Amino acid sequence: MLFNTYVNKNGAAMNIQGVLLAVIFLSPSLSMAQSSTPPDMSKTNPPPRSFVVIDKNKDGHISREEAKQAGIPVLNFDAADKDKDGKINLSEWTLLKF
User: Which end of the chain is less packed: N or C, by CB atoms within 10 Å?
Assistant: First the structure.
């Protein structure tokens, strides 16, 4: 008798079984859609070879010294360092247009 038709206060008939199935099947997809952790793009898209070669210590950033050794002018480095932390991360590197 759990899966009987229910009539709500507006007179609309609802099939309890249909409502339960919708809740069961939509719940996992709703929780996935609300995930606050972005996917790790470094695993799906490897960094460009140019970034890997210049990043000598493999810390995921290009320091001012690494850029200097690669021949990148200070002016270009400073323009690329958008967050002004003294290093270029992969996001900043991909915005560069030499």
Answer: N
Using DSSP's 3-state secondary structure scheme, residue 55 falls into coil
pLDDT per residue as tens digits for the range 45-85: 889 999 999 999 999 999 999 999 999 999 999 999 999 99
User: Is the domain of 50 the same as that of 18?
Assistant: no
Q: Enumerate the β-bridge partners of residue 5.
A: 15
Cα torsion 38, 44, 50, 54: sign: positive
24 plus 52 within the same structural domain = no
Domain that holds residue 47: 41-95
Number of domain units in the chain: 2
